[in-house]
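Shift notes (night). Ran TerB family tellurite resistance protein while the centrifuge was going.
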Amino acid sequence: MINRVEKLSLLSEMIAFAQTDDSIKTIEYKFLLGVAKQLDISREDLVYLFEYPVSYVHLKSHSERIVQFHRLVLLMNLGENITNKELVKLHNFGLRMGLSHESINRVLDLMESFPDKIVPPDFLIDIFKVQYN
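Came back to this:
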């Protein structure tokens, strides 16, 4: 189980990712709010993170890092058009989390073959399992 500081760090990271185009769309904000609720973080704390982000905290658990990467993939796919800048940023976030370069690339390549470019969690886990073993 992750602690409060790690949860706030995850949300800060997602906010930074969503702000790639310098603004947060309503659908992105609602998604962030939903993730905050799942993490048991209040709306007030989420709003606070927009102004005062928490420093990055590296998650110890590989599975938690995969879950966070999946959240970032979902967040990126909320927009109409995925830019190269977003893809590079997602790739870099994945690398910073200590995820395999090959796995990240595989997820990004497979994304195109799924409806709404959303890779199902079981596919994503299988991709990372192969590289982790």
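Helices lie at 4-18, 26-38, 43-51, 62-76, 84-96, 101-111, 121-132. The chain has a mean pLDDT of 89.
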